[in-house]
Amino acid sequence: MFDDFLFALRNFKRNRIRSILSLLGVIIGVASVIVITSLGRSASKSIKDSYSSAGLDLVKISAGFMRRGRDTSVTFNEAFRTELFDAVEHITKIAYCNSMSVTLTKDDTSVNGSATAIEYGYLPMCGLTLSEGADFTVSDGVTGQQRVILGPDVAEALFPSGSAVGQKVIGVHDSVSFQFEVAGVLTESASGIESTANAIYVPRGFYAKKIQPSPNASSIVVQCTAAAAASAVAENIESFIAEKAGNSYAASVTSMQAMLEQYEQVTGTVSLLLSGIAAISLLVGGIGIMNIMIVTVTERRREIGIRKALGASPAVIRTQFLIESALITGIGGCVGIAAGIGISAAAAAVMKWSFAVDGNACAAAFVFSAAIGIFFGFSPASRAAKLDPVEALSSE
Q1: d(Cα 303, Cα 392) in Å, to the nearest integer?
Q2: Average pLDDT, integer, range 85-90
Q3: 225-284, pLDDT tens digit by residue?
Q4: Which of 66-80, 94-108, 280-294, 352-366 has the lowest mean pLDDT?
Q5: Which part of the chain is the ABC3 transporter permease C-terminal domain (predicted)?
Q6: Highest mean pLDDT, choosing among 37-46, 84-93, 266-275
Q7: Is the pTM of this model over 0.85?
Q8: Crossing angle of the two packed helices 314-350 and 2-14, in degrees rounded to 10
Q9: Does the pLDDT value for residue 292 go beyond 60?
């Protein structure tokens, strides 16, 4: 068996160009499978890391909407906060939020966006950090200070040549102007709650004093005792709100844990489907291997005749050619795996994802490529095994 392997390796080197050309289908197929599975795993890992740093223990509640001319929503006032704490277990914090359209202007530059009025402690609760400056204080919320925290893209647009912290910007909402002091700039991230790139945050106390006195929240973020409890908490909140409002449309309740699980399920399905499509090229490569092995058997008829005349059995001849076919596709599998990993690493670096290789996919791709060689090499190997030694020796 080992001698057959060495002989197959020597024959591969002897016909190097022809063997490499016959491997292209296998290399492309394996590389495609590795790229698809690795990028899918990398994307999933990046999203999971993002959620893990901020989000898996959070549940977001948004107010409902009008249905058939009837207001089906529930009121998010302070009484609701107390009732929610009492009715649902495993809740550690509840943060109320309000949204408002705003146009921020500095000199001749303006940025249109949606500002979120938040309570003290909202940013650390959601895992959001500042690249410079400081978070709002308790006093900012109580006194309704006109301060603002900007996302990195907003800060860059308004202050392209210097630090935004401590600078003044003009904010316009419903034709009313306010002067804000920039308290801080967020670190760019895309957590389960929201992306920070274009975020604009103001103290909820400012919203209550200058925009809408004693406002009901438009959305709520709930922090659970642990990420594992988030799905159950979300279900209990849905039941509580439906019972309180008398309908199932009163609010939209979203668990970040459930969103992540759904995302992983979708990416896994898509990766599996695309891998199956990419694997078709392996079959095409296998047909190429079969063709090249048929040519090899034809070229080596005299060699086969001599081996049979010296006592080699049909099984030995068949094994020799099967090993040669499996070796060729195995080499193609290794090259394809290396190419796939390299392409995946480069693509992950460009997209700023955490690079992750699916070891199971690599092992499966190698085994499948070798199996392709054996499957498509069986017919040529059997033809070689059935050759009559006299006929084979007289062929040249």
Answers
A1: 8
A2: 93
A3: 988 898 899 999 999 998 888 776 778 888 887 777 777 788 778 777 877 777 777 777
A4: 66-80
A5: 277-389
A6: 84-93
A7: no
A8: 60
A9: yes
Instruction: Note the pLDDT of residue 115.
Output: 95
Question: Mean pLDDT, the chain, as a whole number?
Answer: 83
Span 169-190, mean pLDDT? 92
Which pLDDT band, with edges at 50, 70 and 90, does 191 fall under? low
Pairwise CA distance, residues 80 & 93, whole Å:
14
Which are the contacts of 210, defined by CB distance < 8 A and separation ≥ 6?
144, 146, 178
CB 73 within 8 A of CB 245: yes
- Exposed e or buried b per residue across 273-291, where buried means at least 16 C-beta atoms within 10 angstroms of its C-beta: ebbeebbebbeebbebbbe
Q: What is the mean pLDDT of residues 293-297?
A: 77
Tell me the one-letter amino acid at 295.
V
Residue among 94, 93, 100, 139 at smallest CA distance from 117: 100
* Residue 238 to residues 45, 75, 83, 254, Cα–Cα distance (Å): 29, 14, 13, 9
| Angle of the 301-309 helix axis to the 314-350 helix axis, nearest 10 | 130
Neighbours of 321 (CB within 10 A): 25
Tokens of 68: 């058939």
Q: Tell me the CB-side half-sphere exposure of residue 253, using CA atoms within 13 A.
A: 19
Among 192, 163, 375, residue whose Cα is nearest residue 282: 375
Q: Which amino acid is at 73?
A: S
Buried b (16+ CB within 10 A) or exposed e, 55-87: bbbbbbbbbbeeeeeeebbbebeeebeeebeee
Closest CA to 200 of 173, 176, 160: 173
263 is written with which tokens? Answer: 């995302």
| 230/93 Cα distance (integer angstroms) | 13
- Three-state DSSP state, 150: strand
- Are 117 and 145 contacting, i.e. CB atoms less than 8 angstroms apart? no
* 4 phi and psi angles, rounded to 5 deg: -65, -40
Beta strands in the chain (DSSP E): 58-63, 66-67, 70-71, 91-106, 109-118, 130-133, 147-150, 168-173, 176-186, 200-203, 219-224, 251-255
Q: What is the pLDDT of residues 134-147, one digit of tens each?
A: 999 999 988 889 99
46 contact partners, CB below 8 Å, separation of at least 6: 352, 353, 354
